[in-house]
Amino acid sequence: VVAAAGCGPVYVQDRDPYGRYDQEPPPYASHQGEAAPQGQPAVDQQFSELSGYGTWGWTSDYGRVWIPHANRTHGWRPYFYGSWAYTSYGWTWVSDEPWGAGPYHYGRWAWTSHHRWVWVPGYTWAPAWVVWGHGGGCVGWAPMPPHYSAGVHVNVHHAYWVYVPHTHLHGHKV
Predict the structure, then answer these.
(1) Helix (H) or strand (E) holding 100
(2) pLDDT at residue number 31
């Protein structure tokens, strides 16, 4: 668990009180698809550029997934290298990773039995696909699981969370 000094217990909430997903997303790449190899789902052109930063794979739970090379870095996790900006869409993740524009705003992240993070592509934009928690003067977030839906309790493993003091959410690098 990554925790800032002085951050106490964090209470998981079922809905994101910081973001607003009901607005139109900003313009991003189009959704033109490419041929899928050997019957696997197509990887959209907008996601094909990820190949230089990771590999595409297949899991029985999620189908086609992308495995970032960042997984090779000890302690790497989604929504860690970057910062939060408050925009007209709510709290928006601004990634420091060169490939972050797609995976942090479309699709979800999952921890697999192979002990690595994988990105499950999606087609709905959000400022960030995270669940939020707060308490003890701190705010925390964790990647939203692929099968999460609003209003359903999410049990996110404590190791997936990042915590910072409330005063460090805006304008500070995590």
Answers:
(1) none
(2) 29
CB 70 within 8 A of CB 76: yes
pLDDT digits over 114-145, tens only?
888 999 998 889 999 998 888 888 899 999 88
Could you tell me the strand order of the sheet in which 138-143 lies?
2-3, 162-165, 138-143, 130-135, 11-12
The DSSP result for 14-71, as a single string, is SS-SSB--SSPPPP-------PPGGGPPPPPHHHHGGGGGEEEEEETTTEEEEEEGGG
- pTM beyond 0.85, yes or no: no
Nearest to 36 by CA among 28, 21, 47: 47
Round to whole Å and give the CA distance between 157 and 57: 24
Residue type, 23: Q
Q: Tell me what the pLDDT averaged over the chain comes to.
A: 75
Residue 40: predicted pLDDT: 40
CA distances from 112 to 61, 66, 67, 100 (A): 9, 12, 11, 20
Two tokens, residue 120: 């499950």
Cα-based distances in Å from 100 to 25, 32, 68, 79 = 16, 19, 10, 9
